Amino acid sequence: MKKLNDYMGEELAKAFEAAGYDPALGKVVISNRPDLCEYQCNGAMAGAKKYKKAPFMIADDVAANLAGSRVFDKIEVVKPGFINLDTDKEFLAEYLRDMVSDPYLSVTRAEKPETIIIDYGGPNVAKPLHVGHLRSAIIGESIKRIGRYMGHNVIGDVHLGDWGLQMGLIITELRCRKPDLPYFDDEFKGEYPEEAPFTISELEEIYPAASARSKVDEDYRNEALEATEQLQNGKPGYMALWNHIMKVSVTDLKKNYSRLNVEFDLWKAESDAQPYIPDMVQRMKDEGYAYEDQGALVVDVSEEGDTKEIPPCMLLKSDGASLYTTTDLATIVERMKLYDPDEMLYVVDKRQDLHFEQVFRCARKTGLVKDTTRLSFLGFGTMNGKDGKPFKTRDGGVMRLENLIGDIEQEMFKKIVENRSVKDTDAENTAKVVGLSAIKYGDLSNQATKDYVFDVDRFTSFEGNTGPYILYTIVRIKSILSRYAEEGGSDEGLVILPAINESQKNLMLRLTAFGQTVENAFDEKAPHKICAYIYEVSNAFNSFYHETKILSQEDPEVKGSLIALLALTKKVLETSIDLLGFSAPDRM
RNA sequence: GCACCUGUAGCUCAGUGGAUAGAGCAGUGGUUUCCGGUACCAUGUGCGGGGGUUCGAUUCCCUUCAGGUGUGCCA
């Protein structure tokens, strides 16, 4: 479906052409002076030089050719050469009627759907999710949803960290604690037990303990390194342990992610890429890309024009073990083989920028991907506390994700119960839904690439630019609509008519921007643009609501029109928050 | 050292090669024939500093200052 801007742009282009100017100058943008007009065209000024003519003369010529257009209600030429425009009310209403009947609300979906793999989440098994995992999950999930709405085939992969030194550390620590387990008995020939010899909470305690010890105890560290290698070589006892760790851990992870309304299509892990490593490495050697340097096997990835030295990509350590880079490369091989995607997008901490630069260059240089396969990196910033430093618990420890969510839910619950006159039978669930909106909107309303301050009080507030405020607006609309239904109103045959006041027209104009906003958000991988948009729509709606009687409207056609507008507003807002990854309750 | 990122109002954040740079919070003062006042309305002498390109720069380029991050055998 065409955008409102397209209609306007076409009119302008025609007018420019008719007046003898380049039609490309007829670009229309939203006015930055809403007190003067709704839209503006600055093409006359851009064309002044080319045609050696005063901008306002060009603008006058163009305006003369716009007269009688059904798209515009007001066309004005101002000082230097601005062409100020207001839309025609009837035309605007007609546009919204089209939008109502468009299942994608004016979004132009992809003609050729692409396959896009988004690598986000990135938790390590046996380690609890902490706040550092929050952003990847939230941002990745939103981009996935936006991509799907755009019509693409988007595959979300959690990409578990399950194969590195951490596993060796856990195994080593377990052996210290429970040396009698059969997994450590090389002579053991029987069936290993089905039950894991630890619970998730034990596991979560074991890893940090092992990690800390390895930093001060060199023998211990070497043991862990050896265990890692033995695991990677498929030692049966260790493999059995690894299976236990995976099972216990993944169950717990799924529970936590579902609490965040985050779902992965693939639960792939680093270990899944292992089978692809030997061939890949061999081929890189054979084809002359990989060479030995200081005992390690590396691929040079520096390129001409680099402003800094890019270290080579390391495939194998001097002890022959693979590492993070190797796994990531092999994962690319695996993904090409299984899915042949048009794009692989990594939503990870921006501090990994250089690492992925190396991986991408290496993959491209050695032909792991097609020339047309896009490898992209969306690095997000750190989540800081109010003090501007990385978010911590009160006593300075790492904040577990489930505790953070729990705190927010509790805060939300308190507010809902306190401020509520009507008894809510389901305040707990409402608190969860609203709390999630607070967390996600708080995160997504910032540019992903920047660090941001996570402020619980601000995010959970019902006032201002927050998730709860957006939800409040939706709930308010729902409430009016259900009252309308109770009064016997039908939603059949309701038609949006031209606006009856300025605030309604403003709301209508805001609604027309949905399609463009979603498309931009997708192109730029910028969910915060959707946040800014729904905040605008919510404000426009609340102003309109404040000024306009809806249910007490006497003229049934006008009333029906307002109800239809409310329904569209609700649909736009609900669709938007779904793209952001949260939802609205019926009451709050 | 080198590289990258960031620097916008007291605080938290948007934003665009163009007309008077916007929101929220905090502060002050208002609003109801009330469909949810957890709302609406009013109130803001700020683009780190200095050059340059341009008719026009907060936006592009250079430089400088400040903060953050990264920089071959962790992930």
Fold blueprint:
Blueprint: H1 4-18, E1 28-30, E2 39-41, H2 43-51, H3 55-66, E3 72-78, E4 82-87, H4 89-101, E5 115-119, H5 134-149, E6 153-157, H6 165-177, H7 200-216, H8 218-232, H9 236-259, H10 270-273, H11 277-286, E7 290-293, E8 296-299, E9 313-316, H12 324-338, E10 343-349, H13 353-365, E11 374-380, E12 383-384, H14 401-418, H15 427-444, E13 452-453, H16 456-459, H17 467-486, H18 502-512, H19 514-523, H20 528-547, H21 556-580
Parallel strand pairs: 5-6, 5-10, 10-11, 12-13
Antiparallel strand pairs: 1-2, 2-4, 3-4, 7-8, 8-9
Helix pairs in contact: 1-3, 2-3, 4-18, 6-7, 6-8, 7-8, 12-13, 14-15, 17-20, 17-21, 18-20, 19-20, 20-21
The chain binds one RNA strand of 75 nucleotides through helix 2, strand 9, helix 13, strand 13 and helix 17.
Put the structure in a nutshell.
This protein is of the alpha/beta class and 588 residues long. It contains 21 helices and 13 strands.
Descriptive report:
The chain is of the alpha/beta class and 588 residues long. Helix content is 51%, strand content 10%. The protein has helices at residues 4-18, 43-51, 55-66, 89-101, 134-149, 165-177, 200-216, 218-232, 236-259, 270-273, 277-286, 324-338, 353-365, 401-418, 427-444, 456-459, 467-486, 502-512, 514-523, 528-547, 556-580, and strands spanning 28-30, 39-41, 72-78, 82-87, 115-119, 153-157, 290-293, 296-299, 313-316, 343-349, 374-380, 383-384, 452-453. The two termini are 35 Å apart. The structure holds one RNA strand of 75 nucleotides.
